[in-house]
């Protein structure tokens, strides 16, 4: 049902290291997650079907607390679904952890390490020596060359998120999971970092899943936006975003024809939850 | 233009600092003089309260006989041994509790009870078990300090934001990586806070141990002086003890400065910021 509709989807089959042959980078089959608590079961995800092709940039939007981040944790192999299956490049995640890059709302730079040492953390953990020059090059690319030996507390929020980006790019994962990495930044910085991250990921043909509250951001950056319902989350709408032949990048996309319509369309899908959350009693303003 | 007010400001700060130091010195000197005068005027009984001149005399005598160095040496030695051992054991136990969360849950009520029990009450038992010697003193000191060390450091471990742990896991790091690269360096301020409490508690344990064992050390001098009604010896020992306690605290404070002022040496600068 959801197939490779993105402009730069890879046509052929991807041969996973395992026995499964699939053309999707990420696949969720009938995934249900329930959290067990002493007070009872809390359903988080219900029967989620999702296929993401290599190189595709997919955004997940939905009401607060609906379980968007849970989907990312499943893909990262941090835990297993209650029912259903998750495949990353045809294999169950977990053994693939090292091939996944994760960027969070907070940069989680280690405050006792310098910028350079923070950016090397991923390589260090994967015992991947010899790519250390690459880290310096990347930091230079993102204008952090002068701050290699500074500590994170001396940097602005945008610069810190750039270090986090370099830290993830350095290990060269095939799949990027972005959990609201721009939401803590001010508007100007956010716009710049969105553009930088998008360029970095698209030029490297990375598969990306972005979780965001910002509908505009989702439309501007993605090839596809998936609207989830409130908890337990199900897929409510799967919307392909197209701005002509090739995606012009988030900055241009915001100015493109159709941008506002896409945003409106998604807002309409989300409106019922927003109204319920914000105006519980009376309804309407 | 602006440099003159700045200099005035700095001068004012310096002046205030000196004023405080002078006042503090004045309080100490006034106390000693008042004590001496009141003792010679028989307003207070020097047999019960001693007097500064006698204390000084005794100090010099003890120093000349080599007794001072001996007893201070014994107490400081025991305290440092207990301090390092207690810190090491406490840290190790905290790591174990962190590594095995079910162990932490299992031990929780026992730690709470042990933490609130006055460990001094166990002193007589230790003397029977360990014999009347350094073993009992060290055990006393360890018992007093180690439980607090464990609980302080372990709670520090659990307060490290979950995001750092997630980060290491996503990069393929194992539990050992999480401990080494995040938990321990992030807990440096907590560990230092534990050290500061620990040095004081260890000294309490050592003095109580010396009270009970009564062979040597400042605790022995105090208890001996009390038994033979030589209050000058008691007060002299307490004065020395105060100096020793201050010196030991300064030792930890020096260690803290040394550890945290050098950002390149592994686990320095360990305030975990809230990020973005």
Automatic annotation (TrEMBL), chain A:
One Gene Ontology molecular-function label: ATP binding
Please name one Pfam family that this protein belongs to.
Answer: ABC_tran
Asked whether the keyword Transport is assigned, the reply is yes
Q: Which UniProt keywords apply?
A: ATP-binding, Nucleotide-binding, Transport
What InterPro entries does the annotation carry? AAA+_ATPase (IPR003593), ABC_transporter-like_ATP-bd (IPR003439), ABC_transporter-like_CS (IPR017871), ABC_transporter_ATP-bind (IPR050166), P-loop_NTPase (IPR027417)
Q: Which SUPFAM superfamilies match?
A: P-loop containing nucleoside triphosphate hydrolases (SSF52540)
The UniProt entry, under PANTHER family, shows: ALIPHATIC SULFONATES IMPORT ATP-BINDING PROTEIN SSUB, TAURINE IMPORT ATP-BINDING PROTEIN-RELATED
Output this protein's name: ABC transporter ATP-binding protein
Name the source organism.
Answer: Heliobacterium chlorum
Source species taxonomy: Bacteria, Bacillati, Bacillota, Clostridia, Eubacteriales
Automatic annotation (TrEMBL), chain B:
Name the source organism: Heliobacterium chlorum
Official protein name in the record: ABC transporter permease
Enumerate the transmembrane spans.
Answer: 21-44, 80-100, 112-130, 136-157, 201-224, 231-252
PANTHER family in alphabetical order: ABC TRANSPORTER PERMEASE, ALKANE SULFONATE ABC TRANSPORTER-RELATED, MEMBRANE SUBUNIT
**Ranges for the ABC transmembrane type-1 domain?**
72-252
Localization in the cell: Cell membrane
Indicate the family of this protein. Answer: Belongs to the binding-protein-dependent transport system permease family.
What the entry lists under CDD domains is as follows:
TM_PBP2
Entry keyword set = Cell membrane, Membrane, Transmembrane, Transmembrane helix, Transport
Family matches, as Gene3D superfamilies: MetI-like
What topology does it adopt in the membrane?
Multi-pass membrane protein
| Superkingdom of this protein's organism | Bacteria
Presence of keyword Transmembrane helix: yes
């Amino acid at each position: 049902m959801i197939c490779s509709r993105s402009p730069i989807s890879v046509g052929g089959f991807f041969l996973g290291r395992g026995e499964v042959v699939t053309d999707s980078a990420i696949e969720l089959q009938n995934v249900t997650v329930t959290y067990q608590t002493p007070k009872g079961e809390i359903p988080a995800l219900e029967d989620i079907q999702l296929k993401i092709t290599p190189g595709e940039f997919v955004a997940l939007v939905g009401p607060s607390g609906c379980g968007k981040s849970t989907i990312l944790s499943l893909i990262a192999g941090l835990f297993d679904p209650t029912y259903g299956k998750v495949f990353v490049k045809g294999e169950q995640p977990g053994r693939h952890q090292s091939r996944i890059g994760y960027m969070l709302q907070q940069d989680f730079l280690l405050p006792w390490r310098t910028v350079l040492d923070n950016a090397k953390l991923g390589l260090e953990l994967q015992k991947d020596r010899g790519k250390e020059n690459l880290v310096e090059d990347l930091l230079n690319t993102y204008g952090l060359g002068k701050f290699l030996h500074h500590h994170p507390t001396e940097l602005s929020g945008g610069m810190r998120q750039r270090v986090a980006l370099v830290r993830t790019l350095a290990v060269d994962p095939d799949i990027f999971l972005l959990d609201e990495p721009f939401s803590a930044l001010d508007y100007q910085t956010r716009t710049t970092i969105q553009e930088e991250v998008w360029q970095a990921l698209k030029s490297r043909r990375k598969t990306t899943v972005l979780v965001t509250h910002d509908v505009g951001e989702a439309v501007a950056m993605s090839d596809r936006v998936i609207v989830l319902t409130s908890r337990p989350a199900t897929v409510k709408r799967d919307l392909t975003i197209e701005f002509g032949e090739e995606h012009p990048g988030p900055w241009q996309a915001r100015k493109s024809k159709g941008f506002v319509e896409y945003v409106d369309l998604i807002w309409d899908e989300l409106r019922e939850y927003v109204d319920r959350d914000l105006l519980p009693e009376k309804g309407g303003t | 233009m602006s440099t003159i007010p700045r200099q005035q400001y700095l001068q004012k700060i310096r002046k205030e600092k000196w004023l405080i130091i002078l006042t503090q010195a004045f309080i100490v000197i006034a106390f000693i003089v008042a004590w001496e005068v009141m003792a010679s005027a028989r307003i207070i009984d020097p047999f019960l309260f001693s007097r500064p001149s006698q204390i000084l005399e005794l100090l010099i005598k003890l120093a000349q006989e080599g007794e001072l160095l001996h007893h201070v040496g014994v107490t400081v030695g025991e305290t440092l041994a207990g301090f390092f051992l207690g810190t090491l054991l406490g840290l190790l136990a905290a790591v174990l509790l962190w590594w095995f969360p079910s162990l932490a849950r299992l031990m929780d009520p026992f730690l709470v009870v042990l933490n609130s029990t006055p460990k001094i009450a166990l002193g007589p038992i230790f003397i029977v078990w360990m014999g009347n010697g350094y073993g009992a003193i060290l055990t006393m000191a360890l018992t007093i300090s180690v439980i607090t060390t464990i609980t302080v450091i372990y709670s520090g471990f659990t307060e490290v934001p979950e995001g750092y742990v997630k980060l290491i896991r996503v990069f393929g790091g194992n539990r050992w990586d999480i401990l080494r690269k995040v938990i321990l360096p992030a807990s440096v301020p907590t560990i230092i806070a534990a050290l500061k409490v620990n040095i004081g508690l260890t000294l309490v344990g050592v003095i109580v141990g010396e009270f009970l064992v009564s062979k040597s050390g400042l605790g022995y001098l105090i208890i001996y002086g009390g038994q033979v009604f030589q209050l000058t010896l008691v007060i002299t020992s307490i004065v020395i003890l105060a100096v020793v306690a201050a010196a030991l605290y300064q030792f930890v404070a020096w260690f803290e400065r040394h550890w945290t002022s050098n950002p390149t040496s592994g686990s320095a600068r360990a305030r975990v910021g809230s990020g973005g």
